């Protein structure tokens, strides 16, 4: 029984292209056994995959000499010669932009690119695949396995900058995932930890402003990013806790 899962090289911009055999890297999600290609724990071989030319971009995307695969399925209509993978979330070829479960309708493939590595920073040991992409016309946000990529309404792709923890800013707005954070100012916006943030006037949790929270004294709990405190109150998931914060007397 033979096993030879490999990864193609990743270019300097982070986009995976058709790789060579001289630098094989094992990826646990893929395997070749007895002349057949498998993904994950599935006992069903990937239909149509050619083991002799099979190469892996990452844990989700792979290809052979003629075809592109995502998980254990063929990406129908994908152009193998021009196919690029940016991270687990996003890819493109000369004709289309892709996310891990389909095509991104309306996206411009010639200018489409990922804006980050597709990983949200969290306190958990496992990976959370979530991130932004853009083309000349729009910004996109996608969290793996949750719906389809969404367009943050009004976001300017020419000035948009992704931040950690699913926040992003452009020249005039602040976003959490695909939703604008009303009242938040990008010029003074900063992260406090993994979930809470501030600008010069507001404390922010996800896509809303934490009303009444004191910007000057507010801090995120280092052990639980859903918990925050200022000098007067404790908050859970952006909402004030009914009981007074111990020690506020």
Q: Which value, in Å, is the CA radius of gyration? A: 22 Å
Q: Please identify the oligomeric state.
A: single chain
Residue-averaged pLDDT: 86
Alpha carbon gap, first and last residue:
70 Å
Category by helix and strand content: mainly beta
Poorly predicted sequence stretches spanning 5 or more consecutive residues: 1-26
Mass-distribution shape: elongated
Task: Give the H and E element order.
Answer: EEEEEEEEEEEEEEEEEEEEEEEEEE
Number of strands: 26
- Beta strand %: 25-35%
Task: Work out the helicity level.
Answer: under 10%
Give the number of helices.
Answer: 0
Strand arrangement, major sheet: 3-4-5-6
Give a quick account of the main beta sheet: strands, pairing sense, barrel closure: 4 strands, antiparallel
Account of the 3D structure:
The chain has 249 residues and is mainly beta. Helices cover 0% and strands 30% of the residues. Strands 3-4-5-6 form a four-stranded antiparallel β-sheet, with no helix packed on it. Strands 7-8-9-10 form a four-stranded antiparallel β-sheet, with no helix packed on it. The chain is elongated, with a radius of gyration of 22 Å. The termini are far apart. Mean pLDDT is 86; it is low at 1-26.
Describe what is shown at a glance:
With 249 residues, the chain is mostly beta strands.
